[in-house]
Amino acid sequence: MIATVRMRRGKAADSRSAPKFVSEALATATEAGCTGIRVLRADSQFYNASVIAACRWAGARFSVTTPPSAPGP
Looking at 17-21, 42-46, 67-71, which range is the least confident one? Predict the structure, then answer.
């Protein structure tokens, strides 16, 4: 089951509302009666400590793409 999807256009700043969005999506899966493993798959705009904490708090697995790192010296 896919609880929620947010499509972005251009350079949308999803990271500001990402933790709340993730928490609500994981709660929706639970409320819908899902009993299996809940998995969050997100792009690099969702890569922040609050999103990871929301996944861990909800007991969900996650796969979040990390942003490209800056070139080394």
Answer: 67-71
